[in-house]
Write a structure and sequence with these properties.
50% helix, 2-enoyl-CoA Hydratase, Chain A, domain 1, 2 domains, alpha/beta, 11 helices, globular, 10 strands, 238 residues
Length: 238
């Protein structure tokens, strides 16, 4: 099942399928879409898995084994690609909290987020080639945007699996935390991004034109939240 927690502007989506190592089944796709719908209005979204073994272990092969035609395979790929696209397009920052291994399709879900924070004992890899298939949920393109085309081809083409430290060095993971500090750390980071400025900064980084960036700044400048913060700073200076 997919769970949603709303916490003061932060939406936390948890994939909780321990019997399948949080693998993605057709029903999981439906539930993820419903959770994204229900998270509308949140300033930031965090996606994680239940437990410590797996973030998402890929597609649920037992459930997806019924897909035997090219048309069925394409329909499934388009469906989950759409879910990942919706995560990537969420208005506020999206954090993937890698509580466990992110393999195959799980790595594709992870790179749909803006930021990846990993526990130091996890592994991540685009290892679909071990099943004689390739990434199809938008992950290959997003991987190339993160680490460069050549490195993306090397990673996904060979199916190499990286530990957290190597993934951070490659630019695939943004922050690695000790396991003992992981839950507290990713939640604190996600909460810090649940702000109006962070959402506007995301749009600018995505290529919004300068006029939109300036307009966003001006709107934030006149907001009560800005002046309350400015007053606190000015009062401290006295």
């Amino acid at each position: 099942m997919v769970e949603l927690e709303l916490d003061d502007g932060l939406a936390v989506v948890t994939i909780n399928r321990p019997h399948a190592r949080n693998a993605i089944a057709p029903e999981t796709m439906d539930q993820l879409e419903q959770a994204i719908d229900a998270a509308a209005g949140a300033r930031a979204l965090a996606l994680t898995g239940a437990g410590e073994r797996a973030f998402v272990s890929g597609g649920d092969l037992k459930e997806l084994a019924a897909l035997r035609t090219e048309a069925q395979a394409a329909e499934m790929a388009w469906r989950m690609r759409g879910v990942c696209d919706r995560l990537a397009a969420f208005p506020g920052p999206v954090v993937a909290a890698l509580n466990g291994h992110a393999l195959g399709g799980g790595a594709e879900v992870a790179v749909a987020a803006d930021i990846r924070i990993a526990a130091d004992d996890i592994k991540i890899g685009f290892n679909q080639v071990s099943l004689a298939i390739m990434p199809a949920w938008g992950g290959a393109e997003r991987l190339a945007a993160l680490v460069g085309r050549g490195r993306a081809l090397l990673l996904a083409g060979s199916g190499v699996i990286l530990d957290a430290a190597a993934a951070e060095r490659a630019g695939l993971v943004d922050r690695v935390l000790p396991r003992a500090e992981f839950d507290r750390g990713w939640r604190a980071a996600a909460r810090s991004l649940a702000t109006a400025p962070a959402a506007d900064i995301k749009r600018v980084l995505a290529g919004a034109p300068p006029a939109e960036a300036v307009a966003a700044f001006a709107r934030l400048w006149v907001a009560e939240e800005h002046w309350a913060a400015a007053d606190r700073v000015m009062n401290r200076a006295k």
